Amino acid sequence: MIDIRNVTKKYYMGEIELEVLKGVTIKVGEGEFVSIIGPSGSGKSTLMNILGCLDLPTTGEYYLDGKEISTYNENSLARIRNEKIGFIFQKFNLLSKLNAYENVELPLIYRGVKSRERKIKVEEALYSVGLTDRMHHRPTELSGGQQQRVAIARALVGDPAVLLADEPTGNLDTKSGNEVLKILDNLNGQGKTILVITHDIEVAERSNMQITIRDGLIIDRKVN
Amino acid sequence: MNMSLKNTLKMALKSILANKMRTLLTMLGIIIGVFSVIVMVSLGQGATADVTESIEDMGSNLLSLSIFDSSVDFDNENIEELAFVEGVEKISPSISKNATVKYGTESEDSLSVLGVNEEYAEIQNYAVLYGRFINPIDVDFRNKVAVIGYDTADTLFGDISPIDSEISVNGEKYTVVGVLEEKESSMMGNNNEIVIIPFTTGMRQFKSESIGSVVIQGNAEYGSENTQENIEEYLLEIYEDEDSYKIFNQEELLSTLNEITATLTLMLGGIAGISLIVGGIGIMNIMLVTVSERTREIGIRKAIGARRSNILTQFLIESSVISCLGGLVGIGLGIGATNIISNMMDIKSVINLEVITIAFGFSLFVGIFFGMYPANKASKLKPVDALRYE
């Protein structure tokens, strides 16, 4: 499903060259639940951006669903993000002016799905995260856990190949954090490929494989 | 994968409505711009139409001739000769005097008395309401008959029919044979307070040997300029001095006036148009603020699959919707204000579709043009950077 080979990422801050990723190789098969852990500054966010096609690697190859995408242009990447990847962010990243339904609908609008079909899919996605009764509430009217569940529904609605979660429980209390993790577990049980970035060991231990990254290099792979 | 225009429009409307006060203030620039363009141009065109109408009311293809040199008499013979000059359709002397006119106990001081021939009515667009106009026999026999203006008939006779009554002009008795229809007053004065008599009779009563003023209707096809040249040629032969006479050409005056008013209208419209540009800069300013405020939103949208073009159109449509709405409101207010002003100040206004279309089109253009830069800036944001933005 995901296959990155020897990926590096360099940033330039004026004259100074900063190598954040120094050759990372990760393979995630279909239906796997992989977690990437590491302290802050280890390069895991950069890795997440590259895996999520928000950024391109400096060198190395990235095969997503069998296609080499590290040479794709901006529009093709937008399409990949829309169709193949579902994002779950630490800060939820919902649009505050739109209600839950409209937030979940957005990826389908960008995909050009017809309105009737959108309605079915959006309602299905919100049902799967247990928020049917909160459909017309705005993010500000929802609790953190509910907001994150809306975000999960938004990630799911387009039926992506991979769910990418960046510290999905980072802004939540334990109870709603556990709810969110349970949803992720269930989704994995239904065969979704999930990749979680976290520094929370408890979260990492739920996954099939734990990859530890430090200073831009993978230092440990552990199968749970 | 392409979202429909309808959805983009809905999205744009939503974010415009989310900031009502700001949108309204931004729109104000466009509203004022469109408003002033429409008011200025409509009133300007109204003034043009007004001037044109009042000049055309004096008669069409009108040429009038004034003779200053009194050493050579200009008389009926000259008039008859002038009638044969090429381009001259109709010709009438126009001897003007102020006189006291009486009917019974009613009296009017310094009323304008005009000595003319039978062609005068047609040259100057006068129509007869009752009775008849001066005829050639009156001129030939120096009949003491008079045709009076609408207002004069009213003041001297009131409800009584003036026809066949006798009035006195500076003591001489005249029989009223006709009353003129009411005519709109021109800038030359009131056309309805007037007594018209045969010029031959007039010349005898006022003891003038020479005709000082002549009105001529030129042939439209032949062209008033050519007619004017022919008349000048004839006059130069008699007087041998160009300063002895003066020909006033209505068409020439009309085109000069039209040129002036058109230029003025254009200038006023242009000045008003500048405020539209200023309004456009206002839109650009706000859109730039919006873009940086919504950097995170743009990042989120891109992360879930918005393309550059989606973001670009979203922001462009937002700025165009603002300017379009502003344009529509401006048109409404402009038409309203134009009507109110022209009613209150009793001036003519011409609101034509052309001006409205141009003003609206320009406001739309301003919205798109000044929205382009912010929209482009928004669409070029990198998703990673935009998401990191707080």
Major β-sheet of chain B, in short?
Answer: 6 strands, mixed, barrel
The CATH topology of chain A turns out to be: Rossmann fold
Label the CATH architecture of chain A.
Answer: 3-Layer(aba) Sandwich
Distance between the termini of chain A: 20 Å
Tell me the span between the first and last alpha carbons of chain B. 30 Å
Measured by residues with Cβ under 8 Å of the partner chain's Cβ, the largest interface is: A-B, 26 and 26 residues
Considering the chains and any ligands shown, give keywords for the structure:
A: 224 residues, alpha/beta, Rossmann fold, six-stranded mixed beta sheet, four-stranded antiparallel beta sheet, 7 helices, 10 strands, 29% strand, B: 390 residues, 2 domains, six-stranded mixed β-barrel, 57% helix, 18% strand
Write up this protein.
The complex is a heterodimer of chains A (224) and B (390). Chain A has helices spanning 44-51, 74-84, 100-111, 115-128, 144-157, 174-189, 201-204; strands at residues 2-13, 16-28, 33-37, 59-64, 67-68, 85-88, 162-166, 193-198, 209-214, 217-223. With 224 residues, chain A is α/β, with parallel strands linked by helices. Chain A has a single domain (2-223), classed as P-loop containing nucleotide triphosphate hydrolases (Rossmann fold). A six-stranded mixed beta sheet of chain A has the order 6-7-8-3-9-10, with helices on both faces. A four-stranded antiparallel beta sheet of chain A has the order 2-1-4-5, with helices on one face. The two termini of chain A are 20 Å apart. Chain B has 390 residues and is α+β, with helices and mostly antiparallel strands. Chain B folds into two domains: 5-54 and 256-388, no CATH class; 70-240, no CATH class. Chain B has 13 helices and eleven strands. Chain B has helices spanning 5-17, 20-56, 76-83, 120-123, 136-140, 150-157, 199-205, 224-239, 250-293, 295-303, 308-344, 353-380, 383-388, and strands spanning 62-67, 88-93, 95-103, 106-116, 128-131, 145-148, 166-169, 172-180, 194-198, 213-218, 245-249. A six-stranded mixed β-barrel of chain B has the order 3-4-9-6-8-7. Chain B has a four-stranded antiparallel beta sheet with strand order 2-10-1-11. In chain B, β3 and β4 (106-116) form a beta hairpin. In chain B, α2 (20-56) packs antiparallel against α12 (353-380) and α9 (250-293) packs parallel to α12 (353-380).
